[in-house]
Design goal:
Elements lengths: L13 H4 L9 H36 L2 H15 L1 H10 L2 H31 L7 H29 L2 H28 L5 H28 L2
Helix pairs in contact: 2-3, 2-4, 2-6, 3-5, 3-6, 3-7, 3-8, 4-5, 5-7, 5-8, 6-7, 7-8
Length: about 220
């Protein structure tokens, strides 16, 4: 069966209907976009989920606040795949924008949890252990977030999804944040255990900055 969109004489304004998903024959492109979006979301979820599981095991061993901050954030980041994937399945731009706002809220909550834990550990010091494993956890977080950022950003630009773009920017910044865990292991090994909760606090501040940037991306698209 021929594609109606490419039949001779078909007016060019059918291209404009593509974004609305109701032009003749172009619903198939809408379905393809949905599948591509879900595929990107699930791949990023698998990458971040695997990294978070590894970090969880190492956190149980080390008790590092810096790692806990990174871990909480990475789990929260992975869970944003749920509303984002649902939005793509619904093939709704409005749902994608709502999912983008959910991403921002998840980032903010993770920052608050990490900040509280860092403050508690500053007041009641408990130096982390298993420092080599702790540094390895930071490297795992860096690699997982970097890979997830590449998947999300590439798909977000291709599919014109502001939520995926925001999530990609967020994961890219998270990759740098994860290096704070490596720094914590190095500084604690050098004899400054108080550096661990302080770095956890610095990671919290970085997460809050990511929150603002992601919110700005979503809000900018809404008003664009």
């Amino acid at each position: 069966m021929p594609w109606p969109a490419v039949v001779d004489g078909e007016p060019d304004d059918h291209d404009h209907d593509h974004a609305h998903g109701h032009s003749h024959g172009l619903v198939d492109d809408s379905i393809k976009r949905s599948r591509d979006g879900v595929r990107a979301v699930l791949l990023a979820l698998a990458i971040l989920g695997a990294g978070a599981v590894v970090q969880t095991v190492i956190y149980v061993l080390s008790g590092s606040v810096a790692l806990l901050a990174d871990l909480i954030h990475n789990f929260g980041d992975a869970l944003t795949a749920i509303p984002l994937g649902a939005a793509f399945l619904m093939r709704s731009e409005r749902a994608e924008r709502v999912a983008g706002l959910f991403v921002v809220i998840a980032i903010f909550i993770s920052a608050c949890v990490a900040g509280v834990e860092a403050a508690v550990r500053i007041a009641h010091p408990s130096p982390p252990t298993h420092l080599i494993a702790l540094a390895a956890a930071g490297v795992v977080g860096f690699l997982a977030n970097g890979a997830a950022a590449a998947v999300r950003s590439r798909a977000g630009r291709r599919l014109h999804s502001p939520a995926l773009v925001a999530d990609g920017d967020h994961a890219r910044a998270d990759a740098l944040v994860s290096l704070g865990v490596v720094a914590s292991a190095i500084v604690v090994a050098a004899g400054l255990p108080v550096a661990d909760p302080l770095i956890g606090l610095a990671i919290t501040i970085a997460i809050l900055r990511i929150t603002y940037q992601s919110w700005h991306t979503i809000r900018g698209h809404d008003h664009g």
